[in-house]
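Bench log. Compound arrived from synthesis this morning; before running ITC I wanted a structural hypothesis for how 2-acetamido-2-deoxy-beta-D-glucopyranose sits in the protein. Inputs:
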Amino acid sequence: MNLSFKKYWCSLVIISVFPVLVTVMLLLNTTDQTQTLLVTFGRSGSSFTSDVIAQNKEVFYTFEPLSFLAREKEVLRVPEHFQTIDLEDFSRRVIESYLLCTFDFDTFTSLDNIHLRLSNSTKDLYECFQAEKIGMDHLECYFKFLQECKSRRMTFAKTIRFPVKWAQDLMMRHPKLKLIYLVRDPRATLNSQAKVFKEFTFPSNVTSVSANHCRQLGQDLKQLAHLRDTFPGRVKVFRYENGARDPTGFAAEIYDYLALPITEELTDFVTYLTSPFPHNATDPKCKNNTEFTTNTTNKTDRIKQDTDLDLDMKKQDTSLKSNEATQSVNGKTDMTELKYKGQCPFSTHRDDPVKAMEHWRHEIGFEVARVIDSHCGHLYQQLGYRAASTKEDLENTADISLVDVPQVEGII
Ligand SMILES: *[C@@H]1O[C@H](CO)[C@@H](O)[C@H](O)[C@H]1NC(C)=O
Ligand SMILES: *[C@@H]1O[C@H](CO)[C@@H](O)[C@H](O)[C@H]1NC(C)=O
Ligand SMILES: *[C@@H]1O[C@H](CO)[C@@H](O)[C@H](O)[C@H]1NC(C)=O
Ligand SMILES: *[C@@H]1O[C@H](CO)[C@@H](O)[C@H](O)[C@H]1NC(C)=O
Ligand SMILES: *[C@@H]1O[C@H](CO)[C@@H](O)[C@H](O)[C@H]1NC(C)=O
Ligand SMILES: *[C@@H]1O[C@H](CO)[C@@H](O)[C@H](O)[C@H]1NC(C)=O
C-alpha cells in the first residue's frame, strides 16, 4: 500500500500552498465563532454528552483529536521535535487547530486520525484522505473541511489525556472558549476502563491505577476551581450520573451553559438516545455499519449493550481491528469484548441509562471498590459520591444510592 507516499505527497502540496492558505484563513476569519472543549477521562460518558452537544447543526464536532498520540504506530506522525520535548505544547496546538479551523505544519499531521470518521463534521475529510485520490483532490477536501469548520457557530472538541492545567493558556488566549469537564464516579470509570481498554486488570492493578487516577482527578478539580475564578462563566463541571438520571435536564443545562437553543429536536434526540427502541426498530447509526454486522433488532442481545452509557475510543479501535483479532492470539479477549459491546459499537443509545450507570456495582467486587475508595474517597464529598460500607450496600442498587448531592458551592 502506498498510503504513506500518498500522504507525503499530499502534505507536500499542502505545505507549498501554506502561505496562501494562511491568508485565506485570515480573510475568512469569522470573529463571532465560539469554541468549546470537553475534557474528561476515558469511559466517563463523554461520547453521549458529545453527541448531545453535536446535535445542534451549528456545532462542528471533533471526536478525540489527540487519540493518535496514544497509538504507537501513529506516534511516529508526531513531528520529531515534539516527540521528546513537549507533549503538552503539541497537544494544545492540535486542540487549538481544530477549535480555530486552522492547521500549521505540525498540527496538519494530526488530521490523519482514524477517529475523525466518528463525527459527522469530520467524517468526509477522513473518507477523502483514505480514498485513492490524487493530492489535488485531497487538498480540495481539506479546504472544504476548513470552510465547513469556519462556517459553524461553534467548534467543539472532546478529549481525554488532557490535564485541565493545559487548558489555562487556551482560555487566556481565546476569550470565547468555554471548558466543560465531565466527571464520573471513579469506581465506575476504572471498572469500565479495566474491562474495555484492558490496559490494566483488577484486582492486581487497582492500587496503583486508582491512586494515579484520583491524583490526576484531584489536580484537575483544583485547576478547575482556579480557572472558574479566573474566567467566570467559562468553566463548568458536569456529572455523568446527572445525565443518566435526567437526560433531558442534563442536555438543557449544557445547552444553557453553551448558549445554544434548546429545541424540540434536541429533546427528541435525547429521549431517543435514552429510551428503549420500539421492538422492531434499528438504531439508524448501525444500519450501514459494514465493519460490524448488526443485529440490533434482537432485544436479548441488545441488553448486553446496556452496561455503559459511554462508548469510547478503545472500543472503536477494537471494532476496526476485529478481523485481525479473530486470528490473533489475543483474539479470544478481543472477541469477548466485541460480544460484550453488542452489535453496534457506534451507538451511544442505551435502553436504560440508570441501570447502565449502576452496572459497575454488580461487577467490581467489594474489595476492589474499597481500595478505590481509599484512594479517591477524599474527593467523594465534593463530587457527590458515597463509599459503600459493605458488600451488600455496594450491590443493593435497588435500595441504596451511591450518588449523593455534591458539596454545596462546590465545583459542580
Ligand atoms: C451529517 O452531515 C451531512 C452533511 O455533511 C448532513 O446532510 C446530515 O444530515 C448530517 N447527519 C447528522 C446525523 O447530523
Ligand atoms: C499490572 O500489574 C501487573 C502485575 O503486577 C504488572 O506487571 C503490570 O505492569 C501492571 N500494569 C499497570 C498498568 O500498572
Ligand atoms: C414497527 O411496528 C409498528 C407497529 O407495531 C409499525 O407501525 C412500524 O411500521 C414498524 N416499523 C418498522 C421499521 O418495521
Ligand atoms: C446505507 O447503505 C445503502 C446501500 O449501500 C445506501 O444506499 C445508503 O445511502 C446508506 N445510508 C447511509 C445513511 O449511509
Ligand atoms: C441477525 O441474526 C440472525 C439470527 O442469528 C441471522 O440470521 C441474520 O443474518 C443476522 N442479521 C445480520 C444483518 O447479520
Ligand atoms: C436473539 O438472541 C437470542 C439470544 O442470543 C437467540 O436465542 C435468538 O434466537 C435471537 N433471535 C433472533 C431473531 O436472532
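What the model suggests: The two ends are 50 Å apart (CA to CA). The chain has 23 helices and five strands.
ITC booked for Thursday regardless.
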